[in-house]
């Protein structure tokens, strides 16, 4: 048993969430609101029969035909610990002859939940569905809103209520094709991608539908190993109901993993052209004159020497980069004459545009230079700091911002974008409450 447990523990730690989201009751109401016209369109297509051919004396037509479909009510509510309840009321206009029109009401009550299929994708499942069809009395003396049960009419046969229940999830705007898009790989740089994988079926609480996700990164199409999270991450639930449609949360480990993936892809390696040349450097360091006979530009080529680290505190996010810079001369034929370790601590600024998180270096807070070799005296070390710190302070943030300028895609489903975003940085995690907005082109 102990051997079995020792095998299970690594598997468990490798499948721990590092981000997630809560779809709130407000978010469900918005999804119902934007799904209502879509549902009406689908029901029209399914329920309205094509125009009947002109009746001939030999074969008179007395077939019922649905001539109008209007969704009067469409709601989606949360059922804690269980799932969602979909309630639809549809007004139908039914004719059996040119002069006779009846009004019917189709009511659908369905229980839905999101499950995880064997392929690891989330899918919307109908667990229970109860359709009823009633006739609305149409005489002026009768209250139009008082329905009564239709007794086995031909309309019941024409409206295949069982078929409607089988496909009731298609009345919503997030069918399974869109849910699968949640786990699609998204590009960060040309050779680096991010993917958000659901770890289990969502949980349902009074605050909303909670989805836990694990991030994986691919470099040149291959998933890369990431630092192990020191602390398991769980979605922080809001203390009270949130007016936002969705609350996204990202752990400190997520951001460290992101920068580690960028390091692995080589995106954080920088080549910095300083304002110095070998001639101007020789004025301060006499040995340079004997090393280079012609005046050449001085270049810093910096590569990461260990994984970056992101630290989240209240209202503050910083990244620590650990670089080794080769200082040398010449742009085409680089000749290194000194190796310097550069440790940079930079403040991060976070914002959201559409469905992307824009991460940028707002300011460098601290830089430490230390010589990688000990055969240079302290005077030269101080001189190097004076000469190269300004270049590093300006160029390292500029290079990182250039890498990240396209942003990092957030977990999202196709056709929806994020608005009214409010980012708050807490110790160990970032919270992003936002509203959903259906993109106009999807309509």
Automatic annotation (TrEMBL):
**Which residues lie in coiled coils?**
none
Q: Which domain of life is it from?
A: Eukaryota
Mention one GO molecular function: lipid binding
- The name under which this protein is listed is TENP protein
Residue span(s) of domain Lipid-binding serum glycoprotein C-terminal: 240-434
Q: Name one Pfam family in it.
A: LBP_BPI_CETP_C
Q: State the taxonomy lineage.
A: Eukaryota, Metazoa, Chordata, Craniata, Vertebrata
Species this chain originates from: Motacilla alba (White wagtail)
Matching entries from Gene3D superfamilies are given as: Bactericidal permeability-increasing protein, domain 2
Q: Where is this region: Disordered?
A: 132-154
């Amino acid at each position: 048993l102990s051997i079995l447990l020792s095998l299970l523990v690594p598997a468990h730690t490798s499948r721990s969430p590092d981000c997630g989201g809560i779809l709130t009751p407000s978010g469900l109401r918005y999804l119902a609101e934007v799904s209502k016209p879509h549902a009406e369109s689908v029901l029209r297509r399914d329920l309205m029969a094509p125009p009947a051919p002109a009746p001939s004396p030999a074969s008179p037509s007395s077939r019922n035909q649905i001539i109008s479909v209007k969704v009067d009510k469409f709601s989606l509510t949360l059922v804690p610990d269980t799932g969602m309840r979909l309630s639809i009321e549809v007004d139908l206009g039914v004719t059996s002859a040119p002069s006779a029109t009846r009004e019917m009401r189709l009511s659908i009550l369905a229980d839905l939940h999101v499950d995880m299929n064997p392929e690891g994708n989330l899918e919307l499942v109908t667990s229970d569905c109860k359709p009823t069809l009633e006739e609305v009395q149409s005489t002026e003396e009768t209250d139009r809103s008082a329905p009564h049960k239709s007794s086995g009419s031909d309309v019941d046969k024409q409206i295949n209520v069982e078929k409607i229940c089988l496909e009731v999830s298609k009345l919503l705007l997030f069918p399974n094709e869109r849910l699968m898009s949640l786990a699609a790989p998204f590009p960060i740089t040309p050779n680096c991608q991010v993917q958000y994988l659901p770890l289990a079926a969502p949980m349902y609480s009074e605050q909303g539908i909670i989805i836990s996700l694990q991030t994986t990164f691919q470099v040149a199409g291959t998933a890369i190993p990431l630092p192990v999270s020191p602390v398991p991450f769980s979605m922080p639930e809001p203390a009270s109901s949130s007016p936002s449609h969705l609350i996204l949360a990202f752990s400190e480990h997520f951001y460290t993993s992101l920068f580690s993936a960028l390091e692995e892809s080589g995106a954080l390696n920088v080549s910095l052209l300083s304002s110095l040349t070998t001639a101007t450097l020789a004025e301060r360091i006499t040995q340079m004159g004997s090393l280079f006979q012609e005046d050449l530009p001085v270049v810093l080529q910096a590569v990461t020497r260990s994984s970056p680290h992101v630290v989240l505190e209240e209202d503050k996010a910083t990244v620590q980069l650990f670089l080794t810079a080769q200082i040398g001369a010449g742009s085409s034929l680089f000749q290194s004459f000194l190796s310097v370790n550069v440790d940079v601590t930079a403040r991060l600024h976070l914002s959201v545009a559409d469905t992307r998180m824009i991460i940028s270096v707002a300011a460098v807070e601290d830089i430490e230079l230390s010589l990688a070799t000990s055969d240079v005296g302290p005077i030269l070390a101080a001189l190097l700091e004076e000469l190269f710190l300004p270049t590093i302070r300006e160029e390292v943030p500029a290079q990182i911002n250039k890498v990240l300028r396209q942003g990092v895609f957030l977990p999202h489903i196709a056709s929806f974008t994020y608005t009214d975003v409010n980012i708050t940085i807490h110790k160990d995690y970032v919270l992003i409450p936002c509203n959903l907005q259906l993109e106009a082109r999807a309509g």
